[in-house]
Amino acid sequence: MHDRQASAQHANGLTSDQIDALRQIHGWNELPRQKPPGWPTVLLRQFTSMLVLILAAAALIALALGEQIDALAIALVLLLNAALGFGQEWRAETALDALRSMLTPHAIAVRDGREVDILARELVPGDVVIISPGAAVPADLHILSGTELRADESVLTGESVPVDKTEGGDNEAGQLFAGTALVEGRALGVVEQIGHNTRFGHIAKLTGTVGEKKTNLQMRLGQLAQQIGIAAIAVAAIIVGIGLIAGRPLFEMFMTGLSLAVAMVPEGLPAVVTITLAIGASAMARKKALARRLQAVETLGAASVICTDKTGTLTENQMTATHVWTVDRSYDVTGEGYDPTGHIETDGVPVRAVHDAVLADILKASLTCTHASLQNEDGHWHMIGAPTEGALVTLAFKGWAPPVAQGSLISETPFTSERKRMSVLARDGNDVRLFVKGAPEVVQARCTHIMTQSGPRPLAPADAALITQAYQSMAQDGLRVLSLALRDAGQHDTEEARLTFLGLVGMIDPPRAEIRPALRLARAAGIRVIMITGDGAITAAAIANQIGLGKPDLIEGRDIDAMDAETLAARLRGDVLFARTRPEHKLRIVKALQANGQIVAMTGDGVNDAPALKQANIGVAMGVRGTEVSKSAADLILLDDDFSTIVNAIGEGRRQFDNVRKFVRYLLSSNAGEVFAIMVNLMIGGPLIFLATQILWMNLITDSVTAVALGLEKEEPDQMQRPPRKPNEAILGRSGFALIAVFGIYTALASLWVFYTFMPLGVDLARTAAFTAMLIFEKVSVFAFRSLHRPVSAIGWFSNPVLVLAFSVSVGLQVLAVYWPPLQHLLRTVPLSLDHWWTICLLAAPLIILPELIKGIVMWRTSNQGVQA
Q1: Nearest to 751 by CA among 808, 827, 817, 698
Q2: Which of 70, 127, 309, 361 is catalytic?
Q3: What does the pLDDT look like over 137-173, one tens digit per residue?
Q4: Alpha-carbon distances, residue 54 vs 241, 254, 536, 698, 706 (angstroms)
C-alpha cells in the first residue's frame, strides 16, 4: 500500500475496538431511507382505481334497490380482487427491494494497518479511505494526500465542470463530499461526517437505487387499457340507452351496462405487467445481471449490437506476467494468478534480481509505479488494485521480495486513458528516480537511452526496431504488453522525458471458457458483437481470433479521429474491431451505430465511459471492476463482468417481452369473447347471458391469476434463433388483433349456443352453463397462447407448473361457484349435470386441438424448408 504523504497518525487507520466505539456514537453511514409502503397502504391502494370506484358505487346502488345478494357479490369480488392485487404488488415491491439491496456501494478503507474492501455504510468518522478515479465518495472526507485531483460535484452544485482538489487545507478544496465522484487522481482521506450529517445528507438521498419510473411498455399498455376503458363506458352507455328505449327495467340495464364495461376492460393488465417485469428483473439478477431500471428489462430483448470491452468481459481479468524482454536478455515467468510462488528464469535457469541489475530495475519499477498490493490471508494470496498492476507486483515478488520502503514515494503523475502512462517520483536509496510504465509506443517515444547489462547507452534506431519487433511478437501471442522506463531526477523533476528504456513485460489474460459458445449464441440470435479495447492492434486482433470473432476490419482510435460521422457509420455496417481506443471514442461509435438504426448495448467500467453508457440504448456497467460513476450511468450491471451474462440477459429480455405479448393477447381475447356474447345476445333480444357478478368473477378472480402464470412462461427453444425485434414493434399488430377476434368470436358463439341450447331447461341453468362454458373456454385457450408459433407438445405440457396450478385453481373455483351454496347464492348459479359438463368440454376441445394442429403443420413446414436449404 503506497499512501502519498499520509500523516503518521493515519497510516494504520482505525482499530477494530475504535470502530465499535465510534459506531456506538455515530451509527451507520447511511441516510434515513424512505420506508417502502406498508401492507395497509398497499392494500388500500387496491381500492383507488376508477373501475373499483364504479363497482363500489354499483354495489351501493344495488343495495339501495334492495338487491342485497348482488351488492354482497360485488363487494366480495372487490375484496378478492384487492387480495390478488395486493399479492401481486407486494411481490413486485419485494423483488425491487431485493434489487436495491444489491446496489449497496463499497469503499476501500485502511483498518488495522491493512486495506480492506467494506460496505460504505460501515464507515465511521476517523476512518481512512482510499478513493480511486471513478469512485463515488462515500462520506465527507478531509484529503490527506493526493495529486492532480478533480471531483464531479454536480450532484451538490449543479455545476458540470469537475472541481480541482488539493491535499490538506481547511477550505472546500481540501475536502471531498459524499455523493460526489472523483474523476481524476487518487486520494487518501479521513472521514469527517457520515450519513445524514454529510453535506449531501442535508439535500438529497444517495443515488444507488433501482429506477422505478414506468417503462415505455407499461405506459403503452396503460394507455391501451385507458382507451379500452373509455370505449367500454361509451359502449355500455349506448347499450343501456337502447335497452331503456326498448322498455327493459332500469336496474337490469344498469347491471347489463356495468357487466359489459367490466367485460371490455382488462383490469389485471397493468398489475400483471408490473409483476412480470419485476420478477423478470429478479430472474436476471440470479443470472448475474442487475437491472437498475425496469426500462432495461424491456429494451434488452430488442438489442441488435453488443459493444464490449475485452479485459475482464471477454477475458478472465486475471493478469499474469509470463514474459519479460530486455534488449540483451529475455525471461520467462512461471506461476499463475496473484500467487507469488513462481519464479523468473532465463534459458531455463532461475534468476533473482540481486544477480541481474536490469531485472532489478524492472522489478523496482513494477513495485513502485503502482497502486496494487498483495496480501496473504491464511495462506491465500489476495490482490487489491487493478489486475495489470497486480500482475506487475506479483512479478516483482517472484524475483525481488522486499518492496520499496514506505514513505519513499515523493509524487505521482497518474495514468489516464489519454496519456496511456503513469509515472512516480521516488527515492531509491540515496537517489531520486522517476519510474514510468505505459503503452510501449508511448513510453518508447520518451526514451533517449536503453538499459543493458553493462549499463545505459543511447537508444539507436536499431534498438527501437528491436523493441518494436519484440512488442509485436508478444502481442501476436495475445499478450498485453507494458513498457517500463526510468531516469535519475531531482526532488521536483517529474518531466516524462529523457527516459532510459528498461524492458517489456508481457501479460496473459486468458479468454473466458464460455466466450465462444456465447458468441455463437449471439450470432444465432442476429446480434452483432463488436470488441472495443485500449490494447494495441496486434494484441486485439490476436484475442479476437482466439475467441472466435475471426478477422474483422480493424480500426484504431486514431482512425476514428480522422473519420467524420458518415464515414464511421459506413465502416460500422461491416464486421469491425476497435483497438487503441479512448473512452470518448465509445460515444462516437454508439451514435454511429444508432444512426444505422441499431439498438446498442454498450459496456463500460471507467468514469469516462459514462457518456457512452448513457447514450447507448442499454448501458452495461461492470459490477466487479466498474467505477461507481459508470454504474450510476448504466441501465444494467454485470455482477460477474462476464460477456455471456449480457447474452443471457438479452435472452431473458426476449422471454419477458414475448410473455407480455402472450398474456396481453390472452386477456384481450378472453374479454372479447365476453363482449361479443353480451352484445350479440342483446341484439337478438335475449335475457342476460352473464350477470355482472359473473363477469366480475371471470375477469377479476380467475383471468389475472392465469395471466400472471402465463407471464412466467419459460423461454422457447428457438428464442435466441430469431432476429432482434424492432424497438417500435407493436404489442398486438394485425396478427394479434386477428388472433383476438378469432378466439373472441368462437368463444362468444359457443357460449351463446350453450345458453340457448339449455334455455328450455330454465334461464338460470342456461346462464350457469354459459357462464361456466365461457370460463372453461378462457382457461383452456390459455394453452394456445403459451407459444405464438410452436405447439404446446413441442414445449411441454407441464413445463410451466405455475400455469398448470393456476388452471387447476381456476377450474376448481368454478366448480365451487356451481356447487357450493354460498357461491351459488352470490353468483346466481345452479348445479350442472355431467352431460352439461361433457357438452362444455367438447366445445372447448377445438381451442386446444386446432391451434396445436395449425402450429404443428407450420413448424413442420419450416423445419423441412430449413433442411432443404
Answers
A1: 698
A2: 309
A3: 888 998 888 877 888 776 666 555 678 888 876 678 8
A4: 18, 12, 68, 18, 24
